[in-house]
Design goal:
By secondary structure, the chain is mainly alpha-helical. Helix content is 65%, strand content 4%. The strands form 3 sheets. The protein has a two-stranded antiparallel ribbon with strand order 1-2. Strands 3-4 form a two-stranded antiparallel sheet. The chain has a two-stranded antiparallel ribbon with strand order 5-6. It starts with a helix and ends with a helix.
């Protein structure tokens, strides 16, 4: 078997995927270490490193977020703390694989990485099945909310578990489409059941939305119907968010003043209050932040730093200079959260990020991988409407790990051939 440095890197990603089914003990430092390892490679073998367009984009976006945080008063030592990466800046951990450049030396591996990924998926699915059985037999392994019966599996929060099993379920669905075997169909159903038992409404909504898109794509194959599906989703989201903001602002449902220091615990078993806090406090607060500073937002990581202390020119550019607090008290909507913290410029970067992911999906020559990546992006987008999921490690990091493995396998087809055609 031919074994080289690329194999070591790819195997490390596969191992990371293997241990992605829990976050009770955080595995995020693994990716920081991996990133540092690549920094060392810059010094020792710079001629073998290839920076793709994806790498360049993520470096620009990463520096933009760093700059946004610094000008709002986040000290460098604080920005690079573990708590910051764990909560406010988990973008860097979640997308760490896509920051890493490609090793372009001759690569002929004896390992079938697609087959290895499928084996790891099967192992994770088996562990998940055992966990589900423990829950159904009233002897759950992992976290359970006694009042609601919500199962966290091996995650700290049920939404984290839901986001994870959303992505695993989609992996299993497209694997079933390719293999067409009872075994892989059973694994898909098992993971979809795990998604259901997490009772993560945002994840279930995203799953159902993607199922609707699949029906349109595979059964109707109608581009006009697909376009209408997108438009109705966008209009519906705007109407719900806009209506909630109007009720909060005009009728004083909650206190939206900058001095309001309320931070809500959305893991509260009261599910109705959970929804109302999103609709009438967290989303309107994000919109208010955006309207105060529409160009660059109030500062990356600064949404949850209450009470607000703004300086600048209102409705042009203001930053929040209050005490820096690292927590997961985000806006529970990725689009509003990013608008609040980084404004229109940051939102444009978000659109470009999603566009880059779709670019990769369409360039992948393997149908299974291409479909998984393509529809997973939509799942991330839709779940981002009710949670800050686009940058959440539990949901998106397994996806970026798999995506980086795919990029290594098909680098030439994704990037090099495209560059040659452009010339």
């Amino acid at each position: 078997m031919i074994f080289n440095l690329k194999d070591i890197i790819l195997l490390s990603f596969n191992i990371a995927f293997l241990f992605s089914f829990f976050n009770i003990v955080p595995a995020y430092p693994i990716f920081v270490v991996l990133g540092i390892t690549f920094l060392m490679l810059y010094v020792y073998i710079p001629e073998k490193l290839e920076f793709s367009r994806t790498n360049k984009f993520f470096f620009v976006l990463g520096f933009f977020y760093l700059f946004s945080a610094m000008i709002s008063g986040v000290k460098p030592i604080g920005f690079f703390s573990y708590k910051n990466f764990r909560y406010d800046s988990n973008f860097y951990i979640t997308y760490m694989p896509l920051f890493l450049p490609f090793l372009n030396e001759h690569f002929k591996s004896g390992i079938n990485y697609k087959r290895l990924l499928i084996k790891i998926y099967s192992f994770i699915s088996f562990i998940t099945l055992l966990l589900t059985l423990s829950f159904l037999l009233k002897h759950p392994i992992g976290g359970v909310e006694e009042d609601t019966g919500i199962y966290h599996y091996l995650f700290k929060a049920h939404n984290a578990a839901g986001g994870y099993y959303l992505m695993i379920s989609l992996f299993g669905l497209f694997l079933f489409f390719e293999k067409k075997s009872f075994f892989y169909g059973f694994l898909f159903v098992s993971n979809a059941a795990a998604l259901y038992f997490t009772k993560s409404r945002g994840s279930l909504l995203a799953f159902l939305w993607v199922m609707g898109l699949l029906i349109i794509d595979f059964l109707f194959k109608n581009k006009k119907l697909k376009k209408a599906y997108y438009i109705l989703t966008i209009i519906g989201s705007i109407l719900i968010i806009g209506g909630a903001y109007y009720l909060s602002k005009e009728h004083g449902v909650y206190n939206l003043q900058p001095t309001n220091a309320e931070v809500f615990d959305l893991n509260n078993p009261n599910r109705t209050a959970n929804i109302s806090d999103r609709l009438f406090v967290l989303w309107p607060r994000a919109i208010d932040d955006f309207l105060r500073s529409p160009l660059f937002g109030i500062g990356f990581t600064r949404y949850n730093d209450l009470p607000y202390r703004f300086i600048g020119i209102e409705h042009v550019f203001m930053i929040n200079t209050s005490t820096v607090l690292f927590s997961d008290a985000h806006a529970h909507n990725s689009f509003l959260h990013i608008l609040a913290e980084t404004g229109i410029i940051g939102f444009i970067f978000l659109i470009l990020l999603l566009k880059e992911l779709f670019f990769i999906a369409k360039k992948i020559p393997d149908k299974f991988f291409s479909q998984y990546v393509y529809y997973s992006i939509f799942a991330i987008i839709i779940s981002g409407l009710t949670e800050h999921r686009i940058y959440t490690p539990a949901q998106v990091m397994p996806f970026t790990i798999i995506l980086e493995i795919i990029i290594y396998i098909y680098y030439n087809q994704i990037y090099v051939e495209d560059e040659i055609n452009e010339k």
